[in-house]
């Protein structure tokens, strides 16, 4: 099965906690702090790998987590960094942040990679908190938080030439004749549900050709499997537009041509800027000198397209179509490709997190609740048996403005203050 879209949850590793430790030597009371730092949490990294062809694996496993950093140890020993988690995906995979809908990275070629979620920093051991006043700090810093996010993986085929057209016009037959690919071929609509790839060899060159499943009217709005089909066309360099000029499906060939191009333009106007070769298929059922074909050919050529008469099952005219595709590819290789602007996910902004230092105050039932990301880290670093450590926590809450906010909300002595899973009784002097 060809799977070209998946949603997964990724989580980086949490940073290891700093250690609280003191040298234990004969005749050296306390001996001074020697707690080491915690290790950094592992990153989550996506990497394009040629050995993969679909996103099938992500249907069975949806959660991925990097290794946590190890806690610091005594004798100033650092904890080990957590191992990075490398998630391999097929080349042509776009990684999208689900919450913002922005592209994090387009992994076009094998070896392309990026860090999707950074591991938390390791916490500092108590050796860092010794000073002239505090000779034996009985607290250390907690490790940094892990980062969790949902991402969408979308695979877009990487092919030089894409076959487009209504269902059942002969695209799969053309692919099978032109390449060694063996797509499913039958006389009913949507025979091709999953895209097929094949390598075309002509003269002294070769290129990859993709049979994109038949597009229908309204595809750009998601009709049929519209979005799924159309996105595979975006990476192709040249389009071969296969049209059933015999009208065997009861449709007008010229209207078919117009409708398909309208769908391409509605989905992404850049698609109509790609070189497009019109393959007039099923010519074995049409009089080449008849008025119907002549009208079709003249109307298409008036729009600036080349028309090539073809009968894919009889292998008539196929070589001419493929030769034109090879010529267009060679011509494109000599011109710089115009890059499409895409708004990308802002990793720098994501790392800064402007709300990190904010302490939020809310009233829940009979308690006043304090929350905040940095507050949680400092709270987790607090030794409640150490007055210096408690004082540091109180000073942080006071400097954040939370104490003033509590007073404005009417907090009184004896009221309950809840910080995460702990409850305290409020006094004017903390």
UniProtKB/TrEMBL annotation:
GO molecular function: GTP binding; GTPase activity; magnesium ion binding
Regions that span the bilayer: none
Cofactor field: Mg(2+)
Residue numbers spanned by region Disordered: 15-41
Domain of life: Bacteria
Binding locations of Mg(2+): 172, 192
Any Gene Ontology biological process: ribosome biogenesis
Record-listed E.C. numbers: 3.6.5.-
Record: residues binding GTP: 165-172, 190-194, 281-284, 311-313
Residue ranges annotated for the OBG-type G domain, each copy included: 159-330
GO terms under cellular component: cytoplasm
EC supergroup of this enzyme: hydrolase
Comp. bias (Gly residues): 32-41
Domain OCT: 348-428
The entry's keywords: Cytoplasm, GTP-binding, Hydrolase, Magnesium, Metal-binding, Nucleotide-binding
Compartment(s) where it occurs, according to its Swiss-Prot or TrEMBL record: Cytoplasm
Record-annotated Obg domain positions: 1-158
Classification via Pfam families: DUF1967, GTP1_OBG, MMR_HSR1
Physiological role: An essential GTPase which binds GTP, GDP and possibly (p)ppGpp with moderate affinity, with high nucleotide exchange rates and a fairly low GTP hydrolysis rate. Plays a role in control of the cell cycle, stress response, ribosome biogenesis and in those bacteria that undergo differentiation, in morphogenesis control.
Assembly with partners or alone: Monomer.
Family: Belongs to the TRAFAC class OBG-HflX-like GTPase superfamily. OBG GTPase family.
Protein name, entry field: GTPase Obg
Source organism of this protein record: Zhenpiania hominis
């Amino acid at each position: 099965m060809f799977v070209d879209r998946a949603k997964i949850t990724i989580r980086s590793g949490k940073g290891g906690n700093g250690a609280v430790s003191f040298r234990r030597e004969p005749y050296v009371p306390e001996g001074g702090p020697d707690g080491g730092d915690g290790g950094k949490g592992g990153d989550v990294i996506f990497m394009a790998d040629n050995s993969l062809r679909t996103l099938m694996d992500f249907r069975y496993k949806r959660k991925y987590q990097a290794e946590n950093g190890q806690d610091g140890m005594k004798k100033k020993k650092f904890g080990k960094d957590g191992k990075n988690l490398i998630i391999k995906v097929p080349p042509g995979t776009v990684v999208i942040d689900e919450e913002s809908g922005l592209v994090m990275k387009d992994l076009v070629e094998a070896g392309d990679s990026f860090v999707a979620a950074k591991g938390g920093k390791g916490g500092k051991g108590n050796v860092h908190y010794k000073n002239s006043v505090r000779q034996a700090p009985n607290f250390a810093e907690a490790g940094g938080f892990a980062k969790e996010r949902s991402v969408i993986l979308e695979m877009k085929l990487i092919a030089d030439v894409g076959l487009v057209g209504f269902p059942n016009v002969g695209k799969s037959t053309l692919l099978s004749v032109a390449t060694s690919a063996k797509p499913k071929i039958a006389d009913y609509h949507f025979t091709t549900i999953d895209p097929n790839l094949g390598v075309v060899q002509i003269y002294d060159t070769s290129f990859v050709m993709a049979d994109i499943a038949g597009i229908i009217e309204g595809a750009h709005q998601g009709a049929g499997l519209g979005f799924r089909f159309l996105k595979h066309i975006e990476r192709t360099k040249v389009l071969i537009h296969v049209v059933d000029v015999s009208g065997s499906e009861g449709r007008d060939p010229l209207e078919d041509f117009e409708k398909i191009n309208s769908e391409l333009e509605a989905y992404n106007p850049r698609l109509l800027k790609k070189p497009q070769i019109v393959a007039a298929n099923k010519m074995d059922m049409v009089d080449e000198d008849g008025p119907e074909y002549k009208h079709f050919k003249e109307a298409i050529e008036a729009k600036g397209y080349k028309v090539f008469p073809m009968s894919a099952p009889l292998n008539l005219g196929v070589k001419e179509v493929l030769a034109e595709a090879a010529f267009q590819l060679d011509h494109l290789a000599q011109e710089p490709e115009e890059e499409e602007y895409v708004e990308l996910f802002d990793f720098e902004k994501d790392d800064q997190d402007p709300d990190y230092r904010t302490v939020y105050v809310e009233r829940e039932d009979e308690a006043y609740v304090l929350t905040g990301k940095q507050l949680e880290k400092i709270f987790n670093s607090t030794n409640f048996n150490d007055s210096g450590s408690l004082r540091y926590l109180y000073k942080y809450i006071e400097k954040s403005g939370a104490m003033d906010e509590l007073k404005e909300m009417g907090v009184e002595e004896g009221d309950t203050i809840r910080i995460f899973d702990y409850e305290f009784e409020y006094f004017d002097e903390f």
